[in-house]
TrEMBL record, chain A:
This is Vanillate O-demethylase oxygenase-like C-terminal catalytic domain-containing protein. It comes from the Bacteria.
TrEMBL record, chain B:
Keywords: Iron, Iron-sulfur, Metal-binding, S-adenosyl-L-methionine. The keyword S-adenosyl-L-methionine applies. Its cofactor is [4Fe-4S] cluster. Residues 87-227 form the Radical SAM core domain. Belongs to the radical SAM superfamily. Anaerobic sulfatase-maturating enzyme family. This is His-Xaa-Ser system radical SAM maturase HxsB. InterPro entries: Aldolase_TIM (IPR013785), rSAM (IPR007197), rSAM_paired_HxsB (IPR024023), rSAM_sf (IPR058240), Sulphatase_maturase_rSAM (IPR023867). PANTHER family: ANAEROBIC SULFATASE-MATURATING ENZYME HOMOLOG ASLB-RELATED.
Length: 75, 468
């Protein structure tokens, strides 16, 4: 199954796929131009991949805010 | 505009749950998720996020400070040592099939505190800096050494400004002297009452006469000091009774709280009962049990709770619910509470004591004679938070959840297994899934029980917001 990945997620894709592979070791993942191919036809697995990409972007983009809040809490 | 990190998870009914690090949450749909992930939030989105505490302007120091406060409330800060579990004897007058603690037969010598150990325990208690202390007597069967309990309680009462006591007893053989001891207002009774009387007899008392003796003692305890008696059942995953039978058993003794507790993997019981690959069966049972309690409470004037689900529910609703030692974040062990074993050895938890007895890992922290040695435990404690865990950092339940490294060590012999593969994680995912499923239910029966269990008058709509 081919899953289209919007350009806005490109900077986070490698880390997200690494994480997805560890969460779904039974699924093979291939990075293609502008999309990702997985060896699974289950829509739930495709959704899981998209969500993993979303989560990685959210995590990275909010890291500085989270860090500053933790630092302000812990002194 | 700063939007704090939002972690999400699909809900059973096709919506999505979003939670922030401080435990704020709301429900929305895939459209919102797409907008959030692709930096396409609308004015209405921002307005909602701001009103629900997930976003604030850079210069809005009050909103930022409020978020930090809510986040800080989610962390457990260990107090000074003020909770001590004492094991004056390992001897027990029962031989329960799924005994969760280490025990020896009643007539076995050499498993009680010696006079020297008692003196060392007293001297160590004397050295504590706390003004308020809780002492829990465990065993074995602690009432076999009522003399030791009396000496400790008498000393503690005179030494500390505030003190309270729990006697974890099987209530099998209770002398009149022991009843007098238990009658004090500062002393609580914690006993075992299995899911049904039949199961109690099968696994604990064995004979009918012993069962009747226990039941008479339990009846006397709940009649004499009803507010100070609690009972815990133990469930065999391969013999789960109808939930209504368990509720009936507990209700018949006026006990309002049931703790669904499966046979403990950490103790000797795992040799005789299945404790692995039981999660799906257990989770299904918990769901059925909660549903049965909801029905029961709708028609009963004496509502009941399932302790652990209620505890998790309260942790969802607000921070600061850290009374249960197995669900804290960070879960620092060996700091605010310790176990003193029958030989005077310190352990961080009762489960750690069992693991040492099984020869799995030695987590002793010194002893009452030579003092504490925290080196091993502090190594474990360095990992005792879910805050930076590679899996938990993406989990919407992170703020409500915690870690239990002793459980991980017991089950897997290590503490670095991917979180989602652990029993602890899978079990708590199921509990929090159920909690949110029920929080967003419109069924008046459900809302009635959730309000009772969470300590609220009602589940206010502003608590469980939905963003369209």
């Amino acid at each position: 199954m081919l899953i289209e990945i919007a350009p806005v997620f490109a900077p986070y894709l490698d880390e997200a796929l690494l994480r997805f592979s560890y969460l779904h070791p039974e699924v093979e993942v291939f990075k293609r131009d502008g999309c990702v191919e997985i060896t699974n036809e289950d829509p739930a697995v495709a959704a899981s991949l998209r969500h993993t990409v979303y989560r990685q972007k959210i995590y990275k983009e909010t890291f500085a805010l989270r860090q500053s809040l933790i630092e302000s809490l812990t002194g | 505009m700063n939007v704090v990190p939002l972690k999400f998870r699909p809900m059973a009914d096709d919506g999505f749950l979003f939670c922030d690090d401080a435990g704020g949450f709301f429900k929305s749909d895939e459209g919102y998720l797409e907008r959030y992930a692709t930096d396409a939030l609308t004015f209405e989105d921002y307005r909602f996020l701001t009103s629900n505490g997930h976003a604030f302007d850079e210069g809005n120091h009050v909103a930022r400070h409020a978020f930090r406060y809510r986040w800080a409330r989610r962390f457990h800060i260990p107090s000074e040592l003020n909770y001590v579990i004492l094991v004056p004897t390992l001897r027990c007058n029962l031989s329960c099939a799924y005994c969760q603690v280490s025990r020896v037969n009643e007539n076995t010598p050499g498993h009680d505190w010696s006079n020297e150990t008692l003196a060392a325990v007293i001297a160590w208690l004397e050295s504590l800096s706390t003004k308020e202390i809780k002492i829990e007597f465990q065993g074995g069967e602690p009432l076999l050494r009522l003399d030791l309990l009396e000496k400790v309680r008498s000393f503690v009462r005179s030494r500390f400004e505030h003190s309270s006591f729990v006697v974890c007893t099987n209530l099998q053989e209770v002398t009149e002297e022991a009843w007098d001891f238990l009658a004090s207002d500062d002393t609580n009774v914690s006993t075992s009452l299995d899911p049904t009387v039949d199961l109690h007899q099968r696994h604990r008392t064995v004979g009918s006469a012993s069962t009747q003796q226990f039941l008479r003692n339990l009846r006397r305890a709940v009649d004499q000091f009803p507010a100070r008696v609690s009972a815990l059942p133990t469930f065999d995953i391969d013999a789960l009774p109808d939930p209504s039978a368990v509720i009936e058993t507990y209700a018949s003794f006026g006990l309002a709280s049931i703790y669904l507790r499966a046979v403990n993997h950490q103790g000797f019981a795992r040799k005789r009962f299945r404790t692995r690959e039981t999660l799906q069966t257990w989770v299904s049972y918990v769901r059925a049990f909660i549903a049965a309690l909801i029905d029961y409470n709708w028609n009963s004037e004496s509502p009941m709770e399932e302790y652990y689900f209620s505890h998790c529910l309260r942790r969802v609703i607000r921070g600061g619910h850290d009374a249960h030692v197995d669900l804290r974040n960070p879960n620092i062990v060996g700091k605010s509470y310790v176990v003193v074993d029958h030989d005077g050895a310190f352990y961080p938890t009762d489960e750690a004591r069992m693991m040492s007895r099984l020869g799995q890992i030695d987590l002793r922290m010194g002893n009452v004679r030579d003092g504490m040695d925290r080196r091993v435990v502090d190594t474990v404690n360095a990992e005792a938070t879910n805050l930076f865990d590679a899996d938990c950092i993406h989990c919407p339940y992170q703020a409500f959840c915690g870690v239990d490294l002793i459980d991980d060590l017991s089950r897997y012999g290590r503490i670095d297994l991917p979180r989602h593969e652990t029993n602890f994680c899978q079990r708590h995912m199921a509990i929090f899934d159920l909690a949110f499923e029920l929080l967003y239910s419109n069924d008046p029966k459900v809302r009635h029980s959730l309000a009772l269990w969470s300590g609220l008058e009602d589940i206010d709509p502003t608590l469980v917001r939905v963003h369209a």
